[in-house]
Amino acid sequence: MFTKRYFDKTADGQSVFLFENSNSNGIKVQILSYGGTVVSLQVPDRQGKIRDVVLGYDTLKSYENQDKYLGALVGRCANRIGGSCFSISGKRYLLSSNENKNHLHGGMTGFDKKIWADQIEGENLILSYLSPHGEEGYPGTLTTKVTYSLSEQNELCITYEAVSDLDTVVSLTNHCYFNLNGHDSGKIEGHFLKINGDQITPVNREMISLGTSLPVADSPFDFREFHPIGERIHDTHEQLRIGGGYDHNYILNGQGMRLAAELMGDESKIKMLVYTDMDGMQLYTGNFLKGAPAGKNGAVYQNRDAVCLETQFLPNAVNCPDFPSPILRAGENYHRQTIYRFETIE
Ligand code: GLA
C-alpha cells in the first residue's frame, strides 16, 4: 500500500508530497507528486544487499533547478519535435522551443515540472494532471492519468491514460536514469544490455528523427544479443558521434505488450526487464548528465553514470508519415503501459 507524506514546497509555494510503497521481497519505491518523479527504487542484489537503482536528488529545489528529467514523467510528447511544429487535419500548431528551434520532452515546462494530483488505491498510486488547451502550444485540454503500481512479482508498472477534447499529440514516458549497481556507483558501461529491436530511427545533427529507419545489423547499435553498453560506444559510427554516445530510438519488434529490453548490472547481478506496448524505446546513456546538481547523499553524477530506457512513440512521429501516428483523436482513450521487472542472476 502506498503511503503519503509531505515533502516540501515548490519555489512558488505549492505543496509536494512523497509516496512510498514496498513489497515483501524488499523492493521499495518512492515517488513525488512533482513531475510524478521516481526518486528512489531500492532493489535487493544477488547477495541481498539493497541498492538504489535510480539517480535522483534529496531536495525539491534540486529537482526544480535541473533539466535532466531525472525519474520524471515526460509529456505531452516525449522526445524531439523538429521545428517545434506539426499539423493535424491541415491546421498548423506551433509549440514552444526549448532546444534550439526544436521542441524537447513537452517544452519549457513539461509534465516533468507539474504538480500532479494524487489518489491512493491500495497498491496503486494514481497521479492526474489536467493540461490546458494551448499549453506549450498543444491543442486540446488533455486529462492525463498515470498509475504507478508495485507488485509482489517485483514489477514496477506504469499505466498511462489520457483523453483530449481536440485532436492532439500524446506520447508519455518516464525518464528514470537506471544504474543497476546503485545510483552512486559510477559508469554503466559495464552493464549488459539486450534490446528487442532490429532498427533504430537515425537523427540529423540537431538530433531530429527524419522518419527513416536504419537496420542495427553489423553496427554498434546491435543489441539483439547481450553486449556491455560501453563495448562499442566509442565507435566512429556517425550516429554515435552525433549523440555523443547512445541517444537513439529503437523500433521495437512486434506489437502489443512484449519484452523490449533487458539490462543487467555487472556488479549487483540485478537484472531489469522492460515490457511495453509502445512502438519505440529511446536508449540514452546519460551523455549530458554532467553538470546536474549534486545527487542523493551528495553523489556527483557524471556522463554515462546511468542509462535511460524511455518507451514512447517513434520520435518526431507526428511529422513523419511513415511512422505510426502519435495523434490522439478527440474523445479517444489513450492507454499505454510499461513494466520494469526486477530479478537477480547467478
Ligand atoms: C533524452 C534525450 C536526450 C536528453 C535527455 C535529457 O532522453 O534524448 O538527448 O535531452 O533526454 O537530458
Give a verbal description of the structure:
The protein is mainly beta and 346 residues long. The chain has a single domain (3-344), classed as Beta-galactosidase, Chain A, domain 5. Helices cover 3% and strands 39% of the residues. It is built from 2 helices and 27 strands. It has helices at 60-64, 238-243; strands at 3-9, 15-22, 28-32, 38-44, 50-52, 73-74, 80-81, 85-88, 91-94, 103-104, 117-121, 124-131, 142-150, 155-164, 168-169, 173-174, 192-195, 197-201, 214-215, 227-228, 247-252, 258-264, 270-276, 280-284, 308-312, 327-328, 334-344. The strands form 7 sheets. It has a 9-stranded antiparallel beta sheet, with no helix packed on it. The chain is globular and about 60 Å long. The model has no long low-confidence stretch (mean pLDDT 98). The structure holds alpha-D-galactopyranose. Residues 68-69, 104, 207, 247, 282, 284, 288, 308, 310 line the site of alpha-D-galactopyranose.
Supply the number of structural domains: 1
Proportion in helices: under 10%
Low-confidence stretches: none
H-E string? EEEEEHEEEEEEEEEEEEEEEHEEEEEEE
SS strand fraction: 35-45%
Q: Under the CATH scheme, which class?
A: Mainly Beta
Strand order of the largest sheet: 11-12-13-14-27-23-22-17-20
Query: Mean pLDDT across all residues, rounded?
Result: 98
Bound molecules: alpha-D-galactopyranose
- Count, helices: 2
N- and C-termini, Cα separation: 31 Å
How does the overall form come out from the CA principal axes? Answer: globular
Specify the CATH architecture: Distorted Sandwich
CATH topology: Beta-galactosidase, Chain A, domain 5
